[in-house]
Every structure is written in C-alpha cells, then in structure tokens.
What we know:
alpha/beta, six-stranded parallel β-sheet, five-stranded parallel β-sheet, 18 strands, about 35% helix, Thiamine diphosphate-binding protein
Amino acid sequence: MPGTESAFPIDLKKYKKLSLDPTKPQLTSEQKATLQHNIQLLRDAIVLFTATGAARGVSGHTGGAFDTVPEVCILLSLFENSEKYLPIIFDEAGHRVATQYLLAALEGSLPAEHLLHYREANSKLPGHPELGLTPGVKFSSGRLGHMWPLVNGVAIANRDKTVFCLGSDGSQQEGDDAEAARLAVAQGLNVKLLIDDNDVTIAGHPSQYLKGYDLTRTLEGHGLKVYTVQGEDIDALWGAIASIVTYNGPAAVIAKRLMAPGVEDIEGSTHGHDVIPVKAAIKYLSSRGYPESIASDILLNIKPASSPYLYIGSTKEIGANRVVFGEAVNLVLDKLSKEEAAKKVLVIDSDLEGSTGLKVIHQKHPEVFMPSGIMERGNFSAAAGFGFQADKFGVFSTFSAFLEMVISEITMARLNNCNVLSHFSHSGVDEMADNTCHFGINNFFADNGLSDVHSWLYFPADPAQMIAVVQRVFFERGLRFIFSTRSKVPYILKEDGSRFFDDDYKFVPGKDETIVEGKAGYVVSFGEMLYRSWDAVLRCRQEGLDVGLINKPTLNLVDEQTIKKIGSSPFVLVVESLNQKTGLGSKFGTWLLERQLTPKYGYMGTTKEGCGGLSEQIPFQNLDPQSIILKIKQLSQ
C-alpha cells in the first residue's frame, strides 16, 4: 500500500538491547558493534520518517535528532543496567521531537507505521513533544533552552536518581541555562547533560556569528565537570558519559560533530537543521541498501494537504507579511546614506533572520545589521539600549511566542524611554506545525505599561498594509510592535474588486478602518483573520444580512469614533486568532461598557491546544469562515 498506509520498512525489532556499566568505561568489541548497529538502525529510521514531513509540506527537523542518536542509544543501555537512573531522556531542543517519537515506538507505545504521519495534522505527532497528547511522550519540551531549569527540579524531587537532559549549542545560548547551571552546581544536583555541539543553528554557525561562545569554558566556568569529545567516536563518547555518570554532581559531555554526519546532501550545513529533502532522503536510504520501494511506495506518494476553499473579498495572490516587513524596512533605509543609517539604526537578529524578514535587511543594508544568537532577552535589551538616545532606533525581531520571554525587558525599555521597533512574526496559530508551544497568541502582553504611557501594537492585514505601517511608524519614538503570521495572506479587496490598501492608502496609527458599513451589526478583526472575516461577512451580505466589517490594525488603542458607531449597532463580534483569554476580544467588551454601549457582544479566538499540521489549525480552533458565519447568525437573532 502506498504512502502512509505502507508498513514501516525499517524493522525496529532489530534494535538490540544492551546493558552498559559506567564503572567499565571501555567498550568491548561486542558492545561497540551492538551500539553501532543500534545507532545506524535508528538514524535510518529518523531519516525516513522525518522526510515524510518534507513530502507533505509541513517541514520538520532531521539533523538534530539524527545527531544525538549515539547519546540516546548509550542512555538506553544505562537504563537497562540499573534503576538508579530516571528513565526519561529529557531534551531542551524540542524540534528534535523525532527522538521522542522514535523512543515511543521502540517501547511499544506507538506502532512504527504511525511514524510515517510525522507532523501531519491530527496525527498527535506535532513539531514539539507535548505531554498528554502523544502516547509514550514523557514531557513537553516547550521552547528551545527551557528544559534544564525544569530538569533541575526533577532532580531535586528524585535525589536518589541520576537525571539526564539532552542539550545543544543552540539551546545553551538561552539565558535560562546559565541560571540552571548555577543552581545545579550550588545544590550539587545529579544532573547530567549530553550536549550536541554541531556548530549549526537556523541562521548559520555560532562559531561565526557568536565569536567567543565556547560551551566547554562556559559550563566549566559555572562549576560543572565537563568532558569534550568527538561525538562520532563511540569509544570516546562512552568513556565521557561513563565519567560524568560516576561523578558526584552536575556534569556535561559536549559532543562535537558535524550536523547530520554521513548524510551527504546536508552534512555540516544549516540545511541539516531543517527537514531532509525527499530526494536527499531517498539518496541516503538507497546508499544504505534499502529497496527502491521506500521511495516509490512511501515518500513519493505523500503529498501536501490541499485547502480547496475559495475565499471571496481577497486576491488569489498571496504574500508573506513576515518577509515583507524586512522589505519595508529596506524602503525606509534606502532613503538614508550608509553612514547615516549605521549611525541611526541597529537591526539585531536572534538566529531567525530567514524566518522573520531580517535576511533581506542583512543582504541590502549590512551596515545596520547585527547577527546574534538565541538570546531574545539580551538582544531585545541591546536594541533598546541602542535606542536610548532620542535620535537612534533599535529594531528587534523574533517569533511571537517568544514575546512572553521579554516582558521584563520591555518594561525596562519603556522605563528608559527607548526607541524600539519590534517585529514578532508567527503570530496566532495559522500554519503552526510546531504546535502549541510556538503559538504566538499572547501579543497583548507587550502592552504592559501603565495608562499614562503608550505602546503601539500593530497587526497589518496584508502585504500592502505592512509596507504602509512600517513606513509610517519606523522613526516614531517609543515602543512599537508589529505582528505578522507564519502563513501567507492575500490582499484585501474592496467590494468593487480593487485593492483596499492601494497606492493612495495612508496608515494612521490608532485609527480603525471600515471595510464595509452594516446595519445589522459589525465584525471587528485584524491580521490574517481579516480576510477570513471579510469572506464570512460577504457571504452573510449575499444572504441579505447587512453585516459590517472593521479592520483594527492598531490593536490596543480605542478609536472613539468607530467604537461609538459599531457599539450603537445591534451586535459586535471580535474575530482573532490570539488567545481568547488575553486578546482583543477580552478587552473590547469592557471598552464598550465603559462608554455605556451595550450591543450584543461576542468574541472568537484561540481556545485550545493545537492539532498540528498547517491550514488545519484555524478550523480546529473554530475560526474558519463557516464558524464565523455561524457566530454572526447567532448574534443577529
């Protein structure tokens, strides 16, 4: 049977259980052969099933999980040897989730065939491990570099056990890990870290963009016992792991290796961080002697899921607002000389330049660009510090989920009257295969100042409005936040078929925009939900229900004229993909009541953990046009 209906062609029952005693740090030839057999078996499996993510268009991550298989096999062998180890392989790099799914299959919690549904919607195999969702998964990794502090607590609760955590040179850049190291040393916790140091992250090589960053010296400086070895030297790796296991206290093995060693097309490259392309996977598996049917029956028969719904009120042409942000910044910088731009503007990256639109700024205006590591708190504050002077402006960007990590730094910047333009991409839930821990739904947390100071939260609806917003607010003073989605969005159309945000459009901060007037009530929306709301409104109007639509690109300020108008109508419905508990809808009803406006009121937002996949996330949250239409009709009764 083709595609995901196929049997899993790599026999995981060939995995050979092995018991290793850390008091014997030298492998016998038989132990070494067994380890090498197991390592190759599991690496082949990871290449195969992660490649299904590439085939179905949901991306994924191959290299990190592939890298750490030797460490995983050794840990499983230690668990076989003694009960003094907590038998959980924690991992602070959640994108290496393929490891956890493979372990679940090995222990029998998942059928091996189910691995072929990697990152597929509703498969319960999302892009990061989620406790309680996937059978056999024993923890939620959360965001990169957040696991070690939690593992410290696990070790405190299990002082009679040795607790292990996989790490990486990327995850170790997060400030959480520095704090975790100090606590582990101060309390003598029996925490053992196995860190994959492959010198590859999303945007490049830490040895190049973060000079001076050295894991061995950093962890030794904190007081850990550290062994640094070549990760593909199985004898040296086992000897180092045996040493830290017999050491009383926190210790780490740093395993240096190329990313995805032995996988010809991605070895040592940033491409290895992402999912392996189907062609490269077929090439690798063929070189390993697997039959051609792996390609013909499985990988070539898995296709991206289609979304047949045809939206009205917007173009078929779509654009990526997260990329357009960088292009819009370039339009501003193009008007300055190189010298003036370098003096006036700093754009600092947190290893996501290709994902958040900063790459085009790096390419065209390197004089303002500063590459940096996975250090959101420090990088935001550096951008703020640059903007400490009235005539200087910092630009910061990362994923919206990580906004939650810089709340205190935002307060610090506000207290110092700093000028920072922040672009938080990957807002909402649309096309978020990484699933719940990467949902960017608490954007209003950025507006955490008092009422006597403004922060400006902007969420453009399409690429044309993104350009207008950036050009209007770039050199304004204070804290400004611009949001975009991972997904591409169409251009909003007027009822006559012309573009709403045309060449004559001028963005005005704080002003709501009437897409269409209505007598029956109003829908209020923004960002990627505007075109979905517009589709729903137009279909209601076709049925004779005279519903209006308001675009609210400035999220956190009340437009008094507009709220009076819509608040005097029969109903108001706020539609967004932000957290229903903290988003616009949670505030808008209060704004209405404060003005003695009492229409029927409803609000729709994200309410539950994700389902994985891409386009499936929006309907899973009941935010698709048909769900919006249903809510409109309920309020209009």
